[in-house]
Amino acid sequence: MTRTLEDWLAHISAQHPAAIALGLDRVREVWQRVIPAEAGIQPKLAPAVVTIGGTNGKGSTCAILERILLESGYRVGLYTSPHIERYNERVRIQGEEASDELLAEAFERVEKARGDVALTYFEYGTLAAFAAFADAKLDAVILEVGLGGRLDAVNVIDADVSCVVTVDMDHMAFLGNDRDSIGFEKAGIYREGRPAIYGDTNPPKRLVQHAETIGAKLLLLGRDFGFETHERQWDFFGPFGARRALPMPALRGRWQLKNAAVALTALDMLAERLPVSLGEVKKGLALVSLPGRLQVVPGRPSIVLDVAHNPQAARSLASGLGDMPYAPRSLGVFAILADKDADGVIAAMRDRIDAWYVSAAQAERAASAAQVADALRKQGLGDRVRTFATVGAALEAARRDAGPDDRIVVFGSFYTVAEAMRSAH
User: Fold this and answer.
1) 199 to 277, 335, 342, 362: CA distances (angstroms)
2) Cα–Cα distance for residue pair 99/79, rounded to 1 Å
3) Is residue 197 within 8 Å of residue 264, measured between CB atoms?
4) Residue 14, CA distances (Å) to 9, 34, 104 in order
5) Which of 332, 363, 328 is nearest to 346 (CA)?
6) Which of 9, 137, 141, 290 is 20 to 30 Å from 273 by CA-CA measure?
């Protein structure tokens, strides 16, 4: 019986008892069956592969890199996660979401190859993306790490350039309770003798030590590459010189310049294989788009959608809201997962939100509306809180209460933004 994509997604959800099971042995074994090695060498997905990890900024960096390469005329594959509205968002070829049929065929190849090896939902999806890319005759493949790096399924591929955009506190149950431990896990995507980019000015010691130990070519923001901002433009300084008078990235938020600088440094490292012109860089920066990152839905009141789900991302969201036009009130529609630092996210956003409309996201790992409301009360915000059964109901109430010049901010998780998008349609 031929399975549809919906059938496959239901099937792969039921195949492994754990949602997350870090480790590469199972994934590597199945991948070597999907595309057998020739003379002991595993075939490459494309002539150039870039892997991008980090606590925050991964998706934006991937999107910027993809857009510039597409504007340069290259055939590009992009694998990201999680998705917001459709699973197909995770696998893009030539800037377009993979079709249901292509993904179903890829899942079938993985299923035939896996035998009795148990795979998680993410591992199935990662291998299916690899299979789709291997057949697409691409010039470049961009891979976003799902969780951590060292033991993430994406890391079975040896990237030509590896980027860690930021390191902050998230997924501590899997990655460790301090930035050094988390940084070490993220640095697991670096490779001996190959460019290893870090996109912030405060690299964890263990990230630097790991790069040095394996002999990676470490490039640090502020030391090996950087940028300067000007009125409506910016200059990039990279290992091989400067690119000046660049347009601001079309993605909102001052932090996007750091993400763009990481993308441009990766391009510098691939310049011999994938040369790009200054004009193509400018066009890519001007045209890049990514849902759910300071995304403003047109209309009155304005609605801002952001997937911020950890304290660092929430601090960036708060900063971004501060840069936006004045609004008399900001109403927050907030739902978060139970394994996230809700207290830290609330602390980062408390001065930006005047009234909180909280609910549980439609996810197994969701914190209940009562739990979220309790976290807000503990920070002295109980008089500003209302609870709702769904994100859609919370958004509808916020719309009723908001004045035409007010602003509604939807944040807390990918699930939260997805539900808001569905209810807004």
Assistant:
1) 22, 29, 26, 33
2) 14
3) no
4) 9, 21, 16
5) 332
6) 290
Query: What number of residues does the chain have?
Result: 425
Q: Which strands, in side-by-side order, build the sheet including 233-238?
A: 226-230, 233-238, 241-247
Do 331 and 357 touch, CB atoms closer than 8 A?
A: yes
Structure tokens belonging to residue 251: 């993605």
d(CA 365, CA 378): 22
Beta bridge pairs of residue 79: 91, 143
pLDDT tens digit sequence for 63-93: 999 999 999 999 999 999 999 999 999 999 9
Residue located via tokens 């008089």:
383
Task: Assess contact for 208 and 218: CB atoms under 8 A.
Answer: yes
Structure tokens at 148: 């951590």
Backbone angles phi, psi at 308, to 5 degrees: -50, 120
Query: How far, CA to CA in Å, does 151 sit from each of 20, 37, 69, 187, 416?
Result: 11, 21, 28, 11, 27
Backbone angles phi, psi at 369, to 5 degrees: -60, -35
3-state secondary structure of 319: helix
The amino acid at residue 8 is W
CA 138 – CA 149 distance, rounded (Å): 24
Q: Decide if pLDDT at 39 tops 70.
A: no
pTM attached to this predicted model: 0.95
Is residue 260 within 8 A of residue 290, CB to CB? The reply is no
If residue 186 lies in a helix (H) or strand (E), which one and from where to where?
A: helix 179-186
Question: Tokens 């039921």 appear where?
Answer: 14
d(CA 365, CA 190): 31
How high is the pLDDT of residue 169?
Answer: 76
**pLDDT tens digits along 21-32:** 777 999 999 999
User: Token pair for residue 67?
Assistant: 């857009």
Cα–Cα distance, 124 to 79 (Å, whole number): 13
The pLDDT assigned to 36 comes to 83
